[in-house]
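Retro notes (design track)

What went well: tokenization of the new backbones is finally stable.
What didn't: we kept losing track of which sequence belonged to which structure.
Fix going forward: every design gets posted as structure first, then sequence, in one message. First example under the new rule, 182 residues:
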């Protein structure tokens, strides 16, 4: 009796997972970036509230030309909350993607969508990006360029694309490969 060699059909082969792993890594890196941005926004928020308080108590103590309208704390609060939500979604989604869990795909897509929306809005509405160029604490680098928002837009679009394409879906659906028993 002879045993013939039959190759396994392609359908039973495990998907490579390159796109899923790349999406997970990009999501985690994006989450770390949004964590840093949220920290800077919170620091700026505290300093802007301090400047407003000093301006209300002793207006002559504030440098002339300093914005005392109250718009900066509102903008910084919205930016910090948006950054924290994007960070939570991207980080948890990226970790779950690397663990090949289905909800990671949804969380990563939501986080990348928020990142796309916030950076796209900052690129489209000039007063938002110019409003982010205010630094009360001198910790936030001030730039007149919009390139940071363009970089965020490109990375978020890549993360969203890698998360939603069919190879990632197949890789997640295949689940964690089982180790053979000895």
């Amino acid at each position: 009796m002879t045993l013939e060699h039959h190759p396994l059909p392609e359908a039973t082969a495990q998907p490579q997972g390159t796109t899923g792993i790349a999406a997970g890594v990009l999501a985690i890196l994006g989450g770390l970036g949004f964590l840093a941005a949220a920290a800077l926004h919170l620091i700026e928020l505290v300093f802007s509230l301090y400047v407003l308080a000093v301006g209300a108590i002793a207006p002559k103590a504030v440098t002339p030309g300093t914005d005392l309208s109250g718009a900066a704390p509102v903008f910084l609060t919205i930016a910090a909350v948006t950054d924290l939500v994007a960070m939570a979604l991207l980080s948890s989604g990226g970790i779950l993607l690397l663990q090949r869990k289905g909800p990671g795909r949804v969380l990563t897509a939501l986080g990348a969508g928020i990142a796309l929306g916030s950076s796209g809005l900052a690129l489209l509405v000039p007063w938002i990006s110019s409003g982010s160029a205010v630094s009360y604490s001198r910790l936030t680098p001030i730039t007149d360029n919009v390139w940071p928002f363009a970089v965020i837009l490109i990375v978020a679009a890549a993360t969203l694309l890698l998360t939603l394409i069919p190879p990632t879906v197949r890789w997640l659906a295949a689940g964690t490969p089982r180790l053979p028993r000895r």
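Added context from the reviewer: The chain is about 70% helix and 0% strand.
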